[in-house]
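U., I forgot to send this yesterday:
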Amino acid sequence: MNLTVNQSIQIGMIKIGAITNSSFLQIGSAGVIKCLSNLYNTGGFIEPAPELEAISEAAAAALVPLSPPS
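Result:
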């Protein structure tokens, strides 16, 4: 079976809180999504990363929405 999908996607603003090892972000359609998760320690780190600091109001105000294509 052949399926043709034509679509137009406009994103005004997108905020991604977190992407983890088993997460994926999909915008639009896909025929097949195959799950794959790899974890590499390419920096040779031997201890956990420091905890993330909370986003301040000034940093949150600096978020810029995505503009539509011209």
